[in-house]
Amino acid sequence: MSDTIFSKIIRGEIPCHRIYQDEWVIAFLDINPLSRGHTLVVTKEPVATIGELSDKAAAGLGHALPRICRAVMKATGATAYNLLQNNGREAGQEVMHVHVHIIPRYAPGGGGEESGLRVAWRPTRLDQADGADLARHIARLL
Ligand code: AMP
């Protein structure tokens, strides 16, 4: 994988507002936050998408994430948060290096600003025959 801006941050070549780091992840504030406290948790393993992570790197990410979420919530006073994790250009990924967005959400009038995150959720109905085939197919590939 080519070098990304996040690899440069991990190596300390580009500054960031760092929150946390350990053997597997680094966490810092997003440079263009959708809300106050918008944080990125970035894997030190330099792969683009979550499915490419080694089991150890994935475990390291999973281990650190809840703790960082708790600290962001306490520090900001936010009342809720979204986790967003984009994989691939069509999913909106711009930096091709695995990262999870922690996006704090604030109650109206609760002292924080409204988040710039909008989720347009337009559900369809699962086709039962296709669902049965697809579930079996995915399960076989695990
Ligand atoms: P994504 O679209 O999921 O790839 O998101 C990439 C995120 O990285 C965006 O929210 C950017 O604002 C953020 N970003 C890009 N460069 C930097 C940087 N140097 N420091 C902090 N955040 C950055």
Describe the model.
The chain is of the alpha+beta class. The chain contains 3 helices and 5 strands. It has helices at 5-10, 55-76, 128-140, and strands at 18-21, 25-29, 39-43, 80-84, 99-105. It is globular. The protein starts with a helix and ends with a helix. Bound molecules: adenosine monophosphate. Adenosine monophosphate binds next to loops.
Cofactors, ions, other ligands: adenosine monophosphate
Strand content: 15-25%
Over all CA atoms, what is the radius of gyration?
17 Å
Classification by helices and strands: alpha+beta
The pLDDT mean sits at: 95
Number of strands: 5
- Major sheet: arrangement of strands: 1-2-3-5-4
* Sheet of most strands: 5 strands, antiparallel
Uncertain runs: none
Helical content stands at 25-40%
Number of helices: 3
Structural topology:
Elements: H1 5-10, E1 18-21, E2 25-29, E3 39-43, H2 55-76, E4 80-84, E5 99-105, H3 128-140
Antiparallel strand pairs: 1-2, 2-3, 3-5, 4-5
Bound molecules: adenosine monophosphate.
Question: Descriptors for this entry?
Answer:
single chain, 142 residues, alpha+beta, five-stranded antiparallel β-sheet, globular, binds adenosine monophosphate
Compact overview of the structure:
The chain is 29% helix and 18% strand.
